[in-house]
Amino acid sequence: MRTRKKVKQTKADLVFSTFIYIILILAGICTLFPFLDVVLTSITPTEEIVKGAKNLITIPTHPTLSHYEYVFRGNNAILRAMGVTVFRTVVGTLLSLLVTALTAYPLSKRSLPFRNGLMKYFFFTMIFTAGMIPTFLVVRTLGLTDTIWAFILPGVLNVYNMIIMRTFFMGVPEELEEAARIDGCGDFKILFQIVLPVSKPVLASIGLFYAVWHWNSFFDAVMYITDRNLWPLQTLLREILLTTSTSELLGNTGSLADATPPSTAVIDATIMISCIPIMLVYPFLQKHFAKGVMVGSIKG
């Protein structure tokens, strides 16, 4: 059994490694601190928020979920916005994966006529975009304004994601497809029954990209939607951030125990409601994520 020899580090290497670790730790603290503050504020009772208003961060002595109850109590807007967001995320991700796969697969074949010209066309759309106003005019002309499809169809294909998937498809052994053609399979059957089943890493990665984009998007609703019933969760959260006031902490009762929660607590609880569902998806896709991105980036 071979023993691995450790590479001896010089003093300069140790100093450099220590410096890198310090930078990474500080970056991690700067990244996690705001999130930790949101989590703690969302479960801190109103009394403790008021008492610790001047503190950098308030650690609750008696955690509570009352702020979450306040957000959901009789608030159909939150539930409706959550439903819109879930619908656009699920349907939009599946539809985008389908369109991306149908575009990337033929472009991965060297025998495709005008393949290089088509790729230049897609590259051109990555560098030069029409802009906000022409995009809005197209969406309005197609009759998509004030419909949920305005969230899905304009961004159904992301060229960067398509290129990653195309590069992954180029690495699929040609022998698999040749064997399928001998058995009488056509292009669609090869794609859906041979290529896609062995492409789970890249599908998981690209699907996660699309899902996160759909879940976090809010500006498209600002542009295309005037009906508040069609607002996704992120747009509603933006409205809460812009309109919620910190005044009237005591409400009409004059009692702190029965007071309307401070706006910071309501906002932070709403932020957590919007973050938790998409965070729960990561553990199921993480094992495919790094592999899919790396293979799709370096092969071909």
From TrEMBL:
Keywords (A to Z) from UniProt: Cell membrane, Membrane, Transmembrane, Transmembrane helix, Transport
GO CC, any one term: plasma membrane
Domain ABC transmembrane type-1: 82-282
Gene3D superfamilies, alphabetized: MetI-like
Transmembrane regions listed in the UniProt entry: 12-36, 86-107, 119-142, 148-169, 190-213, 265-285
Record PROSITE patterns: ABC_TM1 (PS50928)
Keyword match Secreted: no
Coiled-coil residue spans: none
Main location: membrane
Bilayer disposition of the protein: Multi-pass membrane protein
Subcellular localization, as worded in the UniProt entry: Cell membrane
Pfam families registered for this protein in UniProt: BPD_transp_1
GO biological process, one term: transmembrane transport
UniProt similarity note: Belongs to the binding-protein-dependent transport system permease family.
PANTHER family for the chain: ABC TRANSPORTER PERMEASE PROTEIN MG189-RELATED-RELATED, POLYGALACTURONAN_RHAMNOGALACTURONAN TRANSPORT SYSTEM PERMEASE PROTEIN YTCP
Protein name per the record: Carbohydrate ABC transporter permease
Biological source species: Massiliimalia timonensis
